[in-house]
Specification:
Blueprint lengths: L4 E2 L9 H4 L12 H17 L6 E7 L2 H9 L8 E6 L2 H12 L4 E5 L8 H10 L3 E7 L1 E2 L4 E2 L2 H10 L3 E5 L18 E5 L10 E7 H6 L12 H11 L8 H17 L1 H21 L3 E2 L9 E5 L6 H10 L2 E2 L1 E2 L3 H4 L2 E5 L6 H19 L1
Parallel strand pairs: 1-13, 3-4, 3-5, 5-8, 8-9
Antiparallel strand pairs: 2-10, 6-7, 9-10, 11-12, 12-15, 14-15
The chain binds pyridoxal-5'-phosphate.
The site of pyridoxal-5'-phosphate has 14 residues, from helix 3 and helix 4.
């Protein structure tokens, strides 16, 4: 159902039984039927994050950024600050949100592609009593790196801080387990590794944090975490008219993951990533990361002399959508191969054949 195979890091290939739910008959979002679907989706989000009953899940109509903005614009009371840990484009996206809302933060910045130094993070957490939350990205999609979330979570717990993690490109692709990793708030969206559509975002948060929110501390009207929580606990609904039509596919994709089991799902992603990485190496291409690699994004450098835009266009013509690297990596001829959605091992082998032929044609 897609013109090209999406090996892009979102949107992703969607399973037919997920797509079919877009044709669900119309319902009102102020109805028992919606409430039933809402509650069921909340439980499935908790399963996705391996969250225990101290967590509570909320649905946000919008993209992954909307979920991140809901959290960051809501969780700080006057006088409180964030510790921002960043090492790529999506860490910088969190920074943009903090800047926009004039939320004070300590900036723990690392080079794009550098694994964050947990000792530097420990020192920064200990040095600033006004810091209440650390904020970081689980899977920095712009490089494909998995950040040391478990280590930072342990430090936060030791030092009496909470941890917010952007899991937009990680949920469904990695074993996150929020409780084990001391993550207090996690966000994600349907249109990435769970294999549904963009626009169906969600938050999974420790309920004590949600209970402690006030209306006044939330700085955005539409994306108020307080309002989302209050509406959910009192009515099992959303504050405004939600993307009901996108929540059905989210619910179905999450049901599929629950049925398969999150461990098996993640193992499948890992197998595909290994096939892609092995194949790319056999073609003589250099991969950005040798360690801390995610299960779903591989960043690869083109051979010198091959133009990045021409390559992306040629792969598109061969039926594959890929992304250029972001920032400095684009100038270095880097592209990204993602295996986030419904991509299986046979698809990866076919992709590698197309990649080989494409490079041969461009180098001829
Ligand atoms: C880690 C991460 N955070 C945030 C976003 C932004 O998500 P969206 O484009 O759905 O707003 C992305 C998108 O790729 C991402 O990979």
């Amino acid at each position: 159902m897609s013109k090209t195979k999406l090996f892009s890091p979102g949107p992703v290939m969607v399973r037919n039984d997920v797509r079919e739910t877009l044709l669900h008959y119309d319902i009102c979002h102020r109805s028992p039927e919606f409430e039933e679907m809402f509650i069921d989706t909340q439980e499935k989000i908790k399963y996705l994050f391996q969250a225990d009953n101290s967590y509570y899940a909320l649905l946000i109509s919008g993209s992954g950024t909307a979920a991140n903005e809901t959290v960051l614009s809501s969780i700080f009371k006057p006088g409180e600050a964030a510790l921002l840990i960043r090492n790529g484009a999506f860490g910088e996206r969190l920074q943009e949100i903090l800047d926009q809302y004039a939320i004070p933060y300590v900036d723990c910045a690392f080079e794009w592609g550098q694994h964050p130094d947990t000792e530097a993070i420990r020192q920064a957490l200990a040095a600033y009593p006004e810091v209440t939350f650390a904020a970081m990205v689980y899977h920095e999609t712009s490089t494909g790196m998995i950040n040391p979330v478990g280590e930072v979570g342990a430090l936060c717990t030791q030092l009496g801080k909470r941890l917010f993690v952007d899991c937009v490109s990680a949920a469904g692709g990695e074993l996150i387990s929020v409780a084990d990793k001391n993550i207090s708030i996690a966000t994600s969206v349907g249109g990435k590794c769970v294999g549904a559509y963009p626009g169906s975002a969600y938050v999974c948060a420790k309920e004590d944090i949600l209970k402690s929110l006030t209306a006044a501390q939330c700085r955005n009207v539409y994306l108020s975490l307080y309002k989302h929580y209050q509406n959910a606990v009192t009515t099992h609904q959303t504050p405004n008219t939600p993307n009901v039509n996108l929540f059905w596919p989210l619910n179905k994709a999450l049901s599929n993951i629950a049925q398969e089991g999150i461990e098996r799902r993640v193992e499948g992603r890992q197998r595909c990533a290994n096939i892609l990485r092995e194949g790319v190496k056999q073609l003589g291409l250099k991969i950005l990361l040798e360690e801390h690699r995610s299960n779903t994004v591989t960043s690869v450098f083109l051979p010198s002399g091959v133009d990045l835009s021409a390559f992306i266009a040629a792969m598109e013509a061969r039926g594959y959508t890929l992304y250029k690297g972001k920032g400095k990596f684009e100038a270095m001829g880097m592209f990204q191969i993602a295996n986030m959605g419904e991509i299986y091992e046979a698809d990866c082998f076919e992709f590698l054949d197309a990649l080989k032929a494409c490079l041969a044609a461009l180098q001829a």
